[in-house]
UniProtKB/TrEMBL annotation:
Name the UniProt record assigns to this protein: Cystathionine beta-lyase/cystathionine gamma-synthase
Family: Belongs to the trans-sulfuration enzymes family.
One cellular-component annotation, GO: cytoplasm
Species of the source: Halogranum gelatinilyticum
Biased composition (Basic and acidic residues): 1-15
GO molecular function, one term: cystathionine gamma-lyase activity
Tree of life domain: Archaea
Length: 390
C-alpha cells in the first residue's frame, strides 16, 4: 500500500521514492540486493514478513511497491518475464472460459494463448479492438477476460481502454491492458477502468536492455491475493538482482520517456516528409487514425514508430543492415535505438498473404527510438536509405 502523502506526489517523484525507503539499519540509500533464498525465524512461523524468496524478497517488494505506485494501483507483483506475468493472468481462468483479445497483440501473447492455453480448454477470439461492435459481438456468457494492448505492435493502433473495459464489465469479465509500449508515465490503464495492468519490464521500465522481467498491477485486494497465489505456486518470480536493475531503471523513466517521445516525434515528422517513405505509423501524427483518442488517453505518444519504406523486402532488409546508430535487433524500450523488419523478423511466421492483409507490408520497418541525438538518427537513416536504393 502506498501512503496518502506519496499518492499525492507527481510521477517523477514517485518513480524515485515510492517503495524505496533508505535502509533502516545502515541508512543505505538504494534498496539492497537481498541475495538470500530463506530467512531466519524467531520461532516456527514467527518471521518478519519473509520466509522464502519465491514467496517474497525485500528487493522484489520494493520494486512491486514502486510499480504499483507508478500505475496508480494498490498492488504490484513481479515476474521473471513479461510472459510470466501474462501467464499468471491466464492462471486466473478455468477450463471452458473464453478470452477476447486484439488481433494485433504481441506475438508471444498470441503464442501462449493459442499454443499453450487452448490445450487446457481456454477459448480465444482475436478481433480488431478498435472496432467496438466487433468486440461486443465476440463476447459471450463464458467470456472472462478482455485482453487489450495499446499502442499495438508494429502498426501503433491505439485502443480505447475505457470503452473496452466497459464492454468487459457488461459481461462481468476482467479487462487486462498490456501497458508495455506506453508505460505508466504516458498512460495509466487503471484510471480508465482496466482491472489489471501487465508489463514487460524488459522494455522501457528496465530501460537499458540489460534485464528481463514482468509485472502485474491491480487495485483490488482479492484479485491481488489470487495473483499472489499463482505467482508463488507457479514460481516465475524474478531474482533480487533483476529487481534491483529494474528499480534502477524506473528512477529515470520520466526523463528517458520525455527524450524518447521528443525524438520519436521529430523522427516521425522527418520520415513523413521523406520521399523514400510511403507511410509513417505514429500516434503523434495528425494523420494517425486514432490521433485524437491517443491525445486524450496518453500524456504523450511514446518512442515506438514504424514506417513503410518504398522498396522491396530485400531493399528494406538492406536499410536495417546498413544503419549504425540504429542496431538491428528485436525488443524495444532501451536507451539505444533499435530497428527491425517485421516481415523478415518478428512477424515472419505469419503467412505472407495474411501478413499483407494485416497491413504488415514487405517494406515495413519498426524502430524503437532511443535517446541519442536526433540529428545522428536522421543522418544514419539517410545513409541507409541511400545504400538500399543505390
Ligand atoms: C516484450 C513484450 C512482452 C513479453 O515480455 P518478455 O519480458 O519478453 O517476456 C509482452 N508484451 C509486449 C507488448 C512486449 O513488447
Amino acid at each position: 500500500m502506498t501512503d496518502d502523502f506519496q499518492r499525492s506526489q507527481r510521477i517523477e517523484t514517485r518513480a524515485i521514492h515510492a517503495g524505496q525507503e533508505p535502509d533502516e539499519e545502515t541508512g543505505a540509500l538504494m534498496t539492497p540486493i537481498y541475495a538470500n533464498s530463506t530467512y531466519k525465524q524467531d520461532g516456527p512461523g514467527d518471521h518478519r514478513g519473509y520466509e522464502y524468496s519465491r514467496t517474497g524478497n525485500p528487493t522484489r517488494t520494493d520494486l512491486e511497491s514502486n510499480l504499483a505506485s507508478l500505475e496508480g494501483g494498490d498492488y504490484g507483483r513481479c515476474f521473471s518475464s513479461g510472459m510470466g506475468a501474462i501467464n499468471t493472468v491466464l492462471n486466473l481462468l478455468e477450463a471452458g472460459d473464453h478470452v477476447v483479445a486484439g488481433d494485433d497483440v504481441y506475438g508471444g501473447t498470441h503464442r501462449i494463448f493459442t499454443q499453450v492455453y487452448e490445450q487446457y480448454d481456454l477459448e480465444f477470439d482475436f478481433v480488431d479492438t478498435t472496432d467496438h461492435a466487433a468486440v461486443a459481438d465476440a463476447m459471450g456468457e463464458n467470456t472472462e477476460l478482455v485482453w487489450v494492448e495499446t499502442p499495438t505492435n508494429p502498426l501503433m493502433n491505439v485502443n480505447d481502454i475505457g470503452a473496452l473495459a466497459d464492454i468487459a464489465h457488461e459481461y462481468d469479465a476482467l479487462c487486462a491492458v498490456d501497458n508495455t509500449f506506453a508505460t505508466p508515465y504516458l498512460q495509466r490503464p487503471l484510471e480508465h477502468g482496466a482491472d489489471i495492468v501487465s508489463h514487460s519490464l524488459t522494455k522501457y521500465l528496465g530501460g537499458h536492455s540489460d534485464v528481463v522481467g514482468g509485472a502485474l498491477v491491480v487495485d483490488d485486494e482479492e484479485l491481488d491475493e489470487e495473483i499472489g497465489f499463482y505467482q508463488n505456486s507457479v514460481g516465475a518470480t524474478p531474482g533480487p538482482f533483476d529487481c534491483f536493475l529494474v528499480l534502477r531503471g524506473t528512477k529515470t523513466l520520466p526523463v528517458r520517456m520525455d527524450r524518447h517521445c521528443d525524438n520519436a516525434r521529430a523522427l516521425a515528422a522527418w520520415l513523413d516528409d521523406h520521399e523514400a517513405v510511403d507511410e509513417v505509423f505514429y500516434p503523434g501524427l495528425e494523420s494517425h487514425p486514432q490521433h485524437e483518442l491517443a491525445t486524450e488517453q496518453m500524456d504523450d505518444f511514446g518512442g515506438m514508430l514504424s514506417f513503410e519504406f518504398d522498396g522491396t523486402l530485400e531493399e528494406a532488409s538492406t536499410v536495417i543492415e546498413e544503419t549504425e546508430v540504429f542496431t538491428l535487433a528485436e525488443s524495444l524500450g532501451g536507451v539505444e535505438s533499435l530497428i527491425e523488419q517485421p516481415a523478415a523478423m518478428t512477424h515472419a511466421a505469419i503467412p505472407r498473404e495474411e501478413r499483407l492483409a494485416a497491413g504488415l507490408t514487405d517494406g515495413l520497418i519498426r524502430v524503437s527510438v532511443g535517446i541519442e541525438h536526433i540529428d545522428d538518427m536522421t543522418a544514419d537513416l539517410q545513409q541507409a536509405f541511400d545504400a538500399a536504393l543505390e
